[in-house]
Records
---
Amino acid sequence: MAWVIHPMRDRKDAAGTLARALAERLPEQSAAAPKTLEDVTGLDKNGIDMRLVAITQLAKGRVMKEPSECKSMSEVRAGVDALDEEIMTLLGLRMRFMEAAARIKTARGQVRDEPRKAAVIAHAKSVASRVGFSPLLAADLYELIVEASIAHELECFDDGPRVSGQRA
């Protein structure tokens, strides 16, 4: 079984620790389980440096197969479900950053920043191109994500205290 790994930087100790923990939790996979960062480091087909076994999968004791290795719809669905959970977790974290932005900004008018929105969408398209995902679909998705983030940030701005303790 190939290991699905995600790009992360400066996590050498965590990679080894998590890889060993996975090997201990899943003895049937122990022979194939990565033991060190060197065991999981490499470039994927798009040239992305894959530095660390997926943290969320390891923490939950799950190993997701590569799509090319799936032989049944249950394996495909398990992979999709695991990815959906990771995506939701990351979107939740993204919203926590929007809450921080609302707390830090001093004026409500600072929340909507069209140049920043354009930069975020351009970055998403660039990453999409690099990883073999449709840049047009990425732009559409990020339009929705950024607008939802702005709406959430506005709600938080209206409801919460500022870093300076003042409301705008």
---
Amino acid sequence: MQYQCLKRVAFFLSTTLMITVGSIVTAQTTRAITIAVNATNREDVGNSLDIDVNSLLEQAQSQAEQGELESAISTYTQVIQADDNNADAYLYRGVAHHDLGAYQRAIDDFSIALQIRPNHAETLYNRGEAYSHTPLINEAIADLTQAIELEPDTVQPYMDRSVLFASIGQFPKALDDLNKVLEIVPDSANAYYNRGKGYIELGNSDLALTDFNRAIQFSPDLAEAYGNRGILLYQLGSTSAAAGQTHTKLSLTKE
């Protein structure tokens, strides 16, 4: 299953614990994930709901997709006032709060949604992602783990959990998650790039170089991969090749 994004943003998540240029790539960083509204197919929406509530949900989703997040929050709140057991309204309002940087409000909404609809993978993923912006890293990992247990073939929770493991120095666990991502999506440049950085932390330059090569193969515009490959080549004594990689990174960054 592939979660859908309410809005797409940069792929890179900074971390002070990962050495070399650039940042760790994650499929989901500065935003949470939601699913498209489809009132006729949602299991949690019964036939007894007034059609106005469904219309409000669609209106709020449209507002959010257009970047009108404050308006979307207001509309989702109207849905909640009409039906305080509507898990989707809390989920989507939480996503809007998240995208505004109001992570605690997002966590609160996701938590209510989970009280109404426990063991919902998308909501757990969203709350875990929101927790990752707070000091509560263990809570973030716990939610992402539960999302993985519920939907083990979905990529995003593995990607995000690998970043969290790396941020606390648990690189073998981060590599395990990235290996799983590559089982599901064998051409994931982001996973190869992150795994290459993990191998650097574990002192395995050869495997790191192989992964940076694969990242560039699958995503020739991935500037950070060139930068990190250049540093690695320099450390291995290939100064001319390293200079070429740095030039390529700078060219891509300017674009």
---
Amino acid sequence: MDVLGVSCYFHDAAAVLLRDGQLVTVPYPARPAWSRLRLVEGLRYVRWRYGAPSYALNAAILDRFRALADERRFVPAIVFLPAKRERWDDRVRRRWLAAEAARRAVAYLDVSDAVHAAGGEALYIPDDAHWNERGHAVVAEALHPFLAHLLR
């Protein structure tokens, strides 16, 4: 059985594939040096994080996701993965995504509480927005019952 995970964070995306329970690496595309400049990242961040178009775009993506699930007969699910440092608008985004998932009858899991309870920032690579080994273990532990229930 294949399980495809797609991560969309309003302005960024990545994917991972599990094939028969084994992780198959899906490479993350390297960005050009100019796009990693703090000023460019800051402008992109503000535009997508606080701009109203991001909600409309994500709602349209969720509609398409639900339609594809119905058409191709797969179980749709959404997992909210917290940022390294939670801000006020992260809570807004979490509530919005939970409500939109419920409106479309899509299974939803927010692992923010599990990550924060297990150490929050300590679960991330220093000076990076990605999890360290312990962070991956904490999220995997939170995901296991959610996915097990969906795959019955």
